[in-house]
Amino acid sequence: MNNALGEIRAPGPLVNSGNLIGIFDSGVGGLAIFRAIREVLPHHELAYFADSKYCPYGNRSSAEIVARAMEVSGFLVGLGAQALVVACNTATVHAVAALRERYGMPIIGIEPGIKPAAAISGSRRVVVLATPRTLESSSVSQLRDLHGSGTDFILQPCPGLVELIEAGQIEEPATMDLLRRFVRPVIEGDADAVVLGCTHFIYLEDKIRMLAGRDISIIEPSRAVAAQLARRLASAGLGASTNGLIEDRFFTSASNPVLISAVASRLLCRDIQMLGVDDQAQNTAA
Questions:
Q1: How far apart are CA 109 and CA 91, in angstroms?
Q2: What is the mean pLDDT of the chain?
Q3: How confident is the model at residue 87 (pLDDT cuts 50, 70, 90)?
Q4: Does the pLDDT at position 282 exceed 90?
Q5: Which residue numbers are catalytic?
Q6: CB-based contacts of 63, cutoff 8 Å, min separation 6
């Protein structure tokens, strides 16, 4: 697929793949979803793609987001993926319908947890932290109309936060300063629930709780997504690999895969090597 944002090529199906699950995000945020899937489905092979060269998706147009989602999904399908997980709220609300139209396989997306937040909020005030593009989407409006009756949802865009997390600057003062500003509506608005509408923000959950108060309810999607994926795989008859060789593979569009690998390793607390897609194409050609 040619588009103004660039083109990536899959090297061909993975040699040892059983029923491979492809997972992607604009960057490293979706690794929280990867981690939950690995816990729920220990015998499936997983391939994760961090589209870090184009991160954050939340600063791009809907057309650009769809183009990247199509490109990255095509790469994962080329590896042999028989199911896809869109581990990105922004990509889900803008592109998951197009992906489902193109690919006849289970495709699991992520949407802000407005429904569960409305169900548990006692004060009927909920703050949704997300990228501007996610909050501007018709999907969020529809979720509020369907599930948010009687609840005041404070939609808080968080520009700049994804970039700091992507750079591994979770503990930096600049990150805390920005987060403190975004969490202020929780404190000042008597909200008792926070929806993490971006997978990157899962890595800030402890800090959000510290700023907003220990009694705050924080809704994040990782376990729910993993459970839904397991159900869809079972209904589609896509069982686990039987060859005994389970290997996680990580890819990125970043110009510096070493840097992204270091950030990913910190987030997952294990050694991660992200393979740059250009390097993969060269290795395949060789």
A1: 8
A2: 89
A3: very high
A4: no
A5: 88, 198
A6: none
